[in-house]
Amino acid sequence: VSMGTIRGANFALDNDGRVHAVWNGSRSTKQDGQHGPPMFYTRSKEDGSGFEEQRIITGHWPVDGGGAIGIDSSSRVFVFWHSGEEGAGDSNRSIFAKISEDNGFSFDREKIISPKGTGVCGCCSMQTAVDRDENIYVVYRTARDGEHRDINLLLSQDNGKNFEDQIMDKWEVQACPMSSMSFGETDRHMLVGWETESKVRFAPLDKGILKKPKIQSPAEDGSKMKHPVFATSAKGEVLLVWTEGTGWKKGGNIGWRQFDSKMQPIGKVHRPNEDVPVWSFLAAYYDQKDDTFYVLH
Q1: Are 263 and 273 in contact (CB under 8 A)?
Q2: Number of Cβ atoms within 10 Å of the Cβ of 193
Q3: What predicted TM-score, i.e. pTM, was given to this entire model?
């Protein structure tokens, strides 16, 4: 299983600063009775001296497309992944969830949270976020009938017990684009970013509300835009960063653009001619002390 930009580790912090992480194993790590690679979970020790022993958190079916983890203010841990019976195809995949009510000490039984029949694009990653109002968001790419590779958003307002869904963006293509998604949060909006037809797109959503979004793109030009990530400032400004030209065994370059609190662009698109190595992923953050956005690559 190639790790790279799609199947790498995903982590979240709880209120005490403990790190909770999930990641893909390889086929050689599967236990008896399991098919294909599992997904592992661990959390850092209370004293910060290291991590607890890793444990397989997923069920019987293979997990080869990455997972996601989120934590709310009550230290509930939400783990998500997509899977399906081996050999059944993307259109038969589903999004699964496991929830811990005790900060990762134990988890309940896994359950399917995606609508029946949507499928899941096997080599696209998914992402989750919990906003300040305790709404839980999960975004993924569908694979309905093998060719409807749409972006679907799931929303729970009851601590993960139930999920609604809304198709955000449609794309008919008979191939997996190996794309990733991301979230960001301001006081006013929950931001979700994705890729459609080789262009990065995003939408600012009213928190806790599912409706057809107003979709924006940071740039109309650009070569093979992928892997959007957000950073948000205390003033509600947003930095959206993405890669250009990256692909299978191929590096690329960085693109970024800044937006104000009303999600209107500030200035032009920036392409600083900085290399993104093969299989690398961008990150961005805002430093309140010097009122500056930073991009890590």
Answers
A1: no
A2: 25
A3: 0.94
